[in-house]
Write a structure and sequence with these properties.
This protein is of the alpha+beta class and 255 residues long. The chain folds into two domains: 82 residues; 147 residues, Nuclear Transport Factor 2, Chain: A. A hairpin with a 2-residue loop joins strand 5 and strand 6.
């Protein structure tokens, strides 16, 4: 009986060691494949399946293998790196805590100002720098002219009305951006009036997740602003529906 128990213990130890060795080998293979995948726009389907398989193995053996916690941490880090586009570099990620109101002279300064305003609750600045652009402005101005005099007097223009509604509730995001890398397109340097550019940014959230942000910038009067180049009756009606016809105050958005 003693000999049988001894053999059973040895078998369990060997099986645990073999499992740990297999996990170590699979993890090394995963890191090598992830490094190759970062040179492309995204990981292949086969790589995602293998990554999920290894993640499941790590979770299943976390209690039995002491090194599993570190392996899991490396796995999460590898997953984050694998989701980043090719143009994102860690050393270029900008902490939001260091941002200030940079103004609107360049597209880069405007984007910094927008992110700063959203993350600090200073959305009044966004409301004051919102503008309908091109044909959208013509249609918005026409729709604004049909509103009651009390509302027109309070807001003065379709730009200020829309800005107050779209950016007036000062609601902070539940998962705020803590760092981001902007991807300003070359066209921003040679923009002409009424130009609208969709600027991409890669953002790291407070939860640790990362995602792409898209921001529409409009070039107007020699500076950049927050703008819309498309007007629809549905969009306008949604904006006006949040204005109290008696007082002109803005109702909070429906959740």
């Amino acid at each position: 009986m003693k000999k049988t128990s001894y053999i059973a213990v040895v078998v369990v130890i060997l099986l645990g060691a073999a499992a740990a060795l297999m996990m170590w080998r699979e993890n090394r293979e995963l890191h090598a494949r992830l490094d190759a995948a970062r040179a492309k726009s995204d990981a292949s389907r086969e790589l995602r399946v293998n990554r999920e398989k290894i993640s499941n193995n790590i979770e299943a053996n976390a209690k039995e293998v002491p090194e599993a916690a570190e392996v899991a941490r490396l796995q999460r880090q590898a997953d984050t790196l694998a989701t980043r586009p090719y143009w994102v570099e860690e050393q270029r990620m900008k902490p939001v805590a260091a941002l200030r109101n940079e103004g609107w002279k360049t597209a880069k300064e405007a984007l910094d100002t927008i992110v700063w305003a959203k993350m600090t609750g200073n959305e009044r600045i966004l409301a004051e720098n919102f503008a309908w652009i091109g044909q959208a402005k013509t249609k918005a101005d026409g729709a604004f002219a049909k509103l009651p005099e009390a509302i027109k007097t309070k807001y003065g223009s379709a730009d200020h009305l829309a800005g107050a509604v779209l950016f007036g509730d000062n609601s902070l995001p539940t998962d705020p951006v803590v760092a981001f890398q902007p991807g300003i397109p070359p066209e921003a340097r040679t923009a002409r009036p009424d130009t609208i550019l969709r600027v991409r940014s890669w953002a790291r959230l407070a939860s640790g997740k990362e995602q792409q942000m898209d921001t529409d910038l409009a070039y107007l009067g020699g500076a950049w602003t927050v703008g819309l180049g498309q007007f629809s009756e549905e969009k306008w009606n949604d904006i006006v529906s949040r204005i109290d016809p008696a007082t002109g105050s803005v109702h909070p958005p429906k959740r």
